[in-house]
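Chain A, query sequence.
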Amino acid sequence: MAKNNVGKKPISQEEYTTNKVLAVFSVCLLGVLVLMILERLLGYSNTWKTGVLVTRVLLGVGIVGAVAGIIMLGQEHAGKRSSVRRIVCGRNMLIASVVAIVFLTAINYYGTMPIKAMYVVLPVLAVYYLVYHSYAPEFFLIAVDTGVGVAAMLVIHRALVSANHTWMSTVAAAGTAVLALIQIAVTASLRRKKGKFTFRGRKIDTQFSKNAYLMLTITPIVMVALMAVVVLAASHVMIALGAAAAYLFITAVYYTVKLM
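Chain A, predicted structure.
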């Protein structure tokens, strides 16, 4: 009987994208579980030393992962290793390791204080990754705008209710306003060029829809307006946050319907 030499069917782009999204959600879930364990260990005096040891060991693993990612990147650029449709590649390894290093360094220096924020950051990163691969390109940018606006509002509110960090409200407000102006200017430029531009000699098409330029202009203006409400009346922060969430929800419904 002849031996079957038919090779394995290559994975499709759709399957690869699905696997990447599942991998990111799995890694973020694992990260949340690790954070829960570290918070438990560092939160009690009788297990604090063990928690510090585990944190430093994981930090070392993250550093090794970053080095491995750099080596893999070098091999891929040299043509010794292919990264086409591979989840475990140099770039992914390096990104995951750098995120882990940043988080674990913060825990190593500040203890359990930043962990609660990390409980929010990890799922948000996973959701953003899903939005990036599943929705229109402009909706991903709208979601990022809303996230930046919400973060700025929370920072401004916390700074204004604290007598020692009021300067942070000015920095957050000014930074968000500058980013909004940059986005409006870039959006106007892309509209004139019909969504196409050249980067490092490569012609890139943003593939924006007809309403994209309008939405990418309105969204930063809305976020800056809501931020101004918090600056002028910090007690109304929940109203501003609710309005931002409602704006994102309505926009998400619109783009979800467009996918159908």
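The longest helix spans residues 13-42. DSSP finds eight helices and two strands in the chain.
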